Amino acid sequence: MLIVMKPDAGASDIERVLQVIETLGFRGHQLPGESRTAIGVTGNSGSIDPAHFENLSGVADAIRVTKPYKLISKDIRPEKSVIKVGNGTIGGPELAIIAGPCAIESREQLFATAEVISRSGVRFFRGGAYKPRTSPYAFQGLGDDGVKMLAEVREQFNLNIVTEAMDEHGVDAVEKYGDCIQIGARNMQNFSLLKYVGKTRKPVLLKRGLSATLDELLLAAEYIMAEGNYDVILCERGIRTFATHARNTMDLSVIPAVHRLTHLPIISDPSHGTGHNYMVTPLARASVAVGADGLIIEVHPRPEEALCDGAQALTPAQYLDLVNQVQLIKSVITSEEVVFAA
Ligand code: PEP
Ligand code: MN
Questions:
Q1: What ligand is nearest to the CA atom of residue 131?
Q2: What is the pLDDT of residue 341?
Q3: Which of 139, 174, 182 to mutate to test ligand 1, by most ligand atoms within 8 A of the CB atom?
Q4: Local structure of residue 312 (DSSP, 8 states)
Q5: Does domain 83-334 have CATH number 3.40.640.10?
Q6: Higher-confidence residue: 309 or 337?
Q7: What stretches of the chain show up as alpha helix (H) in DSSP?
């Protein structure tokens, strides 16, 4: 059920609605919008009688929700959500670029990369400390030592830190030392982990699973929001198909589909989406052109020496060029100037 408040409803009206929801044994989620507040109700197994709410002061409407998701939906919040990540935002008018190495390998490699990312003027830095590797014998990341090094990068370069957590220990560490908890493709449907990050108050970057449909991605986001954490950023990182020319197949049509259904922002990961250095910049350009709210890009000072995902890492020079190109595309698609009049 969705309870839409009148534009002039006061805090006490909202409080009363939340109390009634609680008395009925359910959970109320208040998502303020630009023109009105809507309150989503979760925890009910069957439908709720709208009569409980219809006559309460400040209530405009009590609507039954027929879609499988409630809180991610534009019904509850027609405007786009702008998610605060550290001292930056994702989903607002600026393109949000998150860049850095696949994995933190050493202090020298980490700081050399951070210097380039900082110089490019972007606000967000990535770097994996807990790495989900296909082989148990591959480099697994520096773990706790790596996360602590990221906190030093944040301090020194004023960059907001996005890094993956694979379990509850990782979530606690990222909550303490980072700015945004990344849930990787392999954990998109790890429902206990989703509930755990839903209880934190750090924004979550939720990557699409290797073979997840859009509905599955949105329901994974709904898991996080149902626990009370509404700061979710979605990420298209390619899905597995029959194609072998790229590591994954980037499903760029999911970006406008996401914008149609949900108020949550979506960014694109052409590094994991393609797996090849030469494809990253073209797919980054395309992602921005179809409306991605941002990008996540892997950069390594010496890709040939990378311990993880070297084939898709950009050199610093290639990365700086990418930033220029995508910013130009962003300015073209947001420009109101008429270049070719009919
Ligand atoms: C990553 O971003 O480091 C990563 C492992 O990505 P994904 O979960 O999309 O494979
Ligand atoms: Mn990687």
A1: 1
A2: 65
A3: 182
A4: G
A5: no
A6: 309
A7: 11-23, 51-54, 107-119, 144-157, 168-177, 191-198, 214-226, 254-261, 270-274, 277-289, 316-334
